[in-house]
Design goal:
Length: about 525
Amino acid sequence: MTGSEPRYGAFLSYSHKDAGAARWLHRRLESYRIPRRLARTGTAGTAVPKRLGQIFRDREELAAGHDLSEGVRAALARSDALVVLCSPDAAASIWVGREIAAFRDLNPGKPVFAAIIRGDPADCFPETLRAGADGAELEPLAADLRPDGDGRRLGLLKLVAGLAGIGLDALVQRDAQRRIRRVMAVTLAAAVAVVAMAVLTIFALSARAEADRQRKEAEGLVEFMLTDLRDRLKGVGRLDVLTAVNRRALDHYRQQDLAALLADSLERRARILHAMGEDDERRGDFARALAQFHEAARTTAALLASAPNDPQRIFAQAQSEFWIASVDYERGNLARAKAGFDRYRALAEHLVAIDRRNPDWLKEAGYAEGNLCSIALKQPRDVHAALHACTAALAWMEAAARRTGDPYAMIKDLANRHAWMADAYRAAGDWPNAVRHRDSELALLDRQLARDPANVKFRAARLWSLRGRAKIDLDTGRTDAARERLTAVLGQLDALIRLDPANIEWRQVRTQIVNEIDDSRAQTLKE
């Protein structure tokens, strides 16, 4: 071994059937930055680096090697720790077992960490991991990355704490504080993104190579605006900043020759139009929203016609169908809305037929059934159809949640489906089931808000849930309880409106709640 050969913070041992989980963990461990205050001293008073260092993963590191066995042993010898991804496949892998044994031989006294990704402890630990130095059987301490264990977030922090030699409680606390600071910086990030977009647009050079570089950077920035930045801005209730970001992103395409754009760029432009239309619809500007959606639909329909079995093209056209039907629904044109939602459901079913394991396609099927449930609950009401569609929508969402592996990823969608189930049972006069689903919805939202208390989307959803519960109280003659819930909802809704005064939906709901409080008083007087 020469002094120029790299050392590794850890060697990642796994069955190649778990390659997806290994790639995720490898990326997260190498990119994790130790919080500044914890990087000063570890649990033993030793200095802790800002990062864990390079993590060895054989598929990536040895792609050009001539002798895999020698390369693996050399990497094991240069690793400060061993991380074993535990699953039934790992337990059955002779190579994982040999890597564990070799690491212990080459590095006596250095730590071995286990990370459970599938299966139960009884059948996912390799035999060599259970065997101690004296041959006695051990029960390894492990980070449990399964959704019903520690979950990916806490499980990752447990591994980081062990590899860095710092206390887990302190790491969890500092990590949470760092995430809060990132959320507080969202608006500043939006301003920086808008300025960066303007700079990229104004100073684009004519030379082909430079123009191509600028285009790729601009497209990447637009993608950031449409995904991470948009989600964060929606989370803090900044509809005004969302509008500015959307317009700046669309300006990029106004300066392009649309006929010369690649399909991916055209699809991204359609997504910007969808986003702008969504924001216009939230402000109550339905005519402007519909114009944006129709413009997007012309693009997505043409792209789908050129590749009718491409899942991304199908998905993009499904979004166009949904948003156009959504405007019809809001305007009260239910026949046309239902026709659009039916087309949306057909596209969603096509996606599921292509890949039933994809949680995104399962969610689309759930959204499609949910749309039809909402149509059925409008007058003239079809309670049987509503219950059928709402039940199907909840089943699809639960199937998607099982596929995601993230216990928090689907909370909003699952809560929304329970809300519509409650409305369907309320329409049927089945009060116990209506209350049961409202309680399920509220429990999910409270769970998410405990994790992310500043998120206005979940704060608003919680208010709608309490309002729905109050309506059941009114239906069952509990007018005092209903009025108490509605009054509390009104006070919290006023706080949200102060965060986003441009949100016309919240203002409309406020007016409805005031009327419902007055109706409850009148009903009490009659009693």
